[in-house]
Write a structure and sequence with these properties.
Layout: E1 2-3, H1 9-19, E2 24-25, H2 28-32, E3 47-48, E4 51-53, H3 58-71, E5 75-78, E6 95-98, E7 105-109, E8 114-117, H4 123-131, E9 135-136, H5 149-155, H6 162-165, E10 172-178, E11 184-188, H7 200-204, E12 213-220, E13 222-223, E14 227-235, H8 238-250, E15 257-262, H9 263-273, E16 283-291, H10 294-311, E17 315-318, H11 322-333, H12 335-340, E18 345-348, E19 351-352, H13 358-372, E20 378-381, E21 386-393, H14 398-417, H15 433-440, H16 442-455
Parallel strand pairs: 1-3, 4-6, 5-6
Antiparallel strand pairs: 2-4, 7-8, 8-12, 9-13, 10-11, 10-12, 14-16, 14-17, 15-16, 15-20, 18-21, 19-21, 20-21
C-alpha cells in the first residue's frame, strides 16, 4: 500500500471552494477507506488517495475537474465500490471523486416511459421508484441493493434478467458527462430513433470512468410485468441443464432469468441453508418467468416442464406462494456468500462465451480445477453465456496463491479460445488488465488508445484501468 504526499494547499482550498469545506476529506484514516473496493487486489497495487472530494452537482464536478486538469492530478471516480475488478481503486493517489451525494431521481416521464437520475442513485431504488408507477427498469446486478447507476453505466452491468431484457447499455438513452478538462457533454435524448452523428452515449457505457464522469443519465423503461413466477429445475449434469436452456430459447420460451449452479454451488447452498442435497443433483436452474397474468405463467411453466423433462431433469418445482418465491430467489442471491464461506478466499471471475460453448467452458474449468487442486464452483447466467467461476483458495499460502492465479489464467484462456470475452459485466479494471491487449488485438488496442487520447489527453481519468 502506497501513500502519496499531500497536495498543494492552494489546490486543496480550490476543492473546498468548489464543493464545500465539509465535502473535502483529508484525514489519513478516512481517505484510507477509499483505497479499496470489493475486489481482491494485492496491497502493493493500491494507493491511498491524497484527498476525497464529494460533489453534489454537475457544476461542482466540473469545477473539480478544471482544477485537477490544470494541475495534472489523477482522478478516480467512485460510486458504491461494489466492483469486482478494482475499477474504483486509486492506483496513483490523487483525487477520489465520490459521487455518493448525487442521489436524486430527477424525472419520471411516464408518457415516454423514461427516467432521469443522478449517478449515486442505488439500482434497487430506481427500480422500486419506477415500479410504483407500473414501469420496469430491468438491469439487476447481483449487488443491486448497494450498486449505483454511475457504476452500472461504467461497467455496463448486466444481471439475472439479461437473457430476456438485456444489460445496462440497452436502457441508456442519454448522458450528461463531465470530461477531463471540466467541459460538460450531453449525449442522446428522449427520441427513440437517433442516428445523428456517432453513438457517443454508447461510447461512455462500459468505459469504466476512463473517458468522463457521468453526472446524469436518461434511461428507457418497460411496462412492469403483471405476474412473475419462479421455477427450480434439477439435473444430473451441467450439460443437461445447458441443453435445456438452449431448447427453451429455440422453442421461443424465453425466461426472464435463467440462473445455473453446478454441484459445488449446490453443496455450498445446502451447507449455508442447513438443508440436504437432492440425490444425484449435479446442476440446478433457477428460472424466472413473467407475463400478463397467472394463465400466461401456467402456460410457460407447462412448456418448460415438458422441455426440461426431455432434457433429463430429475426435479421440478414451481413456487406456489410469495414465501416460496422469495426462498428460491434467496438461494440464488445468497450464492456468492455461500460459496465464499467454503474457503478463506474466493477469486470470483466473470467470463462470457457463446451460449453453445457454455458446457465446454465448464468442462475446461473443471479440468483446471483438477490440475490446480483447487475447487472452482461455477454459477452464472445460462441464458446469455455469462458465467462466474469462483477459485477457492487461501491467498496467505504462497503455493495456493500461485495455483489460484494459474487457475485464473487458464479460465481466461479457455474463454478466449471458445470465442468468448474476459468480462460479461464486471469490466476489466485492474485485475484483468494484463489480458486486455491479447483479447482485443493490436488494431483495436490502438483504436482504444486514440479514443482515450482524444477525450482525456493528459490521461488523468481513472489512470491504470483497462490499459
Amino acid at each position: 500500500m502506497t501513500t502519496c504526499t499531500a497536495l498543494e494547499p492552494d489546490l486543496l482550498e480550490g476543492f473546498r471552494e468548489a464543493v464545500g469545506r465539509e465535502n473535502v476529506i483529508e484525514s489519513p484514516l478516512e481517505v484510507f477507506g477509499y483505497s479499496y473496493d470489493a475486489s481482491f487486489l494485492p496491497l502493493d497495487t493500491r494507493t491511498v488517495p491524497q484527498v476525497v472530494v464529494r460533489p453534489r452537482t454537475t457544476a461542482e464536478i466540473s469545477r473539480v475537474m478544471v482544477l485537477a486538469h490544470r494541475s495534472r492530478i489523477p482522478v478516480t471516480p467512485r460510486g458504491a465500490a461494489s466492483g469486482r475488478t478494482g475499477g474504483s481503486v486509486p492506483l496513483q493517489g490523487g483525487i477520489v471523486l465520490a459521487l455518493d451525494r448525487m442521489t436524486s431521481i430527477l424525472e419520471l416521464d411516464t408518457a415516454n416511459m423514461m427516467v432521469s437520475a443522478e449517478p449515486g442513485v442505488r439500482t434497487i431504488d430506481l427500480h422500486d421508484h419506477c415500479a410504483r408507477q407500473g414501469l420496469f427498469f430491468p438491469p439487476d446486478p447481483g449487488s443491486w441493493k448497494v450498486s449505483t447507476l454511475g457504476g452500472n453505466i461504467a461497467e455496463n452491468a448486466g444481471g439475472m434478467r439479461a437473457v430476456k431484457y438485456g444489460v445496462t447499455r440497452d436502457y441508456v438513452m442519454g448522458l450528461e458527462v463531465v470530461l477531463a478538462d471540466g467541459s460538460v457533454l450531453e449525449t442522446g435524448g428522449k427520441a427513440v430513433k437517433n442516428v445523428t452523428g456517432y453513438d457517443l452515449t454508447g461510447l461512455f457505457v462500459g468505459s469504466e470512468g476512463t473517458l468522463g464522469i457521468v453526472s446524469r443519465a436518461l434511461f428507457r423503461l418497460r411496462p412492469l410485468p403483471k405476474a412473475r413466477g419462479v421455477l427450480r429445475v434439477v439435473f444430473r449434469t451441467m450439460d443437461e441443464a445447458c441443453a435445456a436452456v438452449q431448447a427453451m430459447l429455440l422453442e421461443g420460451v424465453t425466461p426472464s432469468a435463467a440462473e445455473i449452479m453446478d454441484a459445488a454451488c449446490l453443496e455450498a447452498v445446502a451447507l449455508a441453508r442447513k438443508t440436504s442435497l437432492e440425490a444425484g443433483a449435479g446442476a440446478c436452474l433457477i428460472l424466472e418467468i413473467d407475463g400478463d397474468g397467472p394463465e400466461a405463467l401456467d402456460a410457460q411453466s407447462r412448456r418448460i416442464e415438458a422441455i426440461t423433462g426431455q432434457a433429463g431433469r430429475i426435479g421440478f418445482r414451481a413456487a406456489a406462494t410469495r414465501e416460496e418465491t422469495e426462498a428460491l430467489w434467496a438461494e440464488r442471491r445468497g450464492l456468492s456468500s455461500a460459496v465464499a464461506a467454503m474457503a478463506p478466499n474466493r477469486l470470483g471471475e466473470d467470463i462470457s462465451v457463446p451460449r453453445s460453448a457454455f458446457p465446454e467452458v465448464v468442462r475446461r474449468i473443471n479440468a483446471i480445477s483438477r490440475a490446480t487442486g483447487l475447487r472452482i464452483p461455477v454459477f452464472g447466467h445460462a441464458g446469455d453465456g455469462n458465467l462466474h467461476p469462483s477459485v477457492l483458495c487461501d491467498l496467505a499460502d504462497p503455493d495456493q496463491a500461485a495455483r489460484a492465479h494459474e487457475a485464473v489464467d487458464g479460465i481466461f484462456k479457455a474463454a478466449l479460445e471458445l470465442g468468448g470475452t474476459l468480462s460479461g459485466e464486471h469490466g476489466i479494471g485492474v485485475s484483468k488488465r494484463p489480458y486486455f491487449a491479447g483479447a482485443v488485438g493490436p488494431v483495436s488496442l490502438e483504436a482504444h488508445r486514440a479514443v482515450k487520447g482524444a477525450l482525456d489527453p493528459l490521461w488523468i481519468l481513472n489512470p491504470g484501468k483497462i490499459w
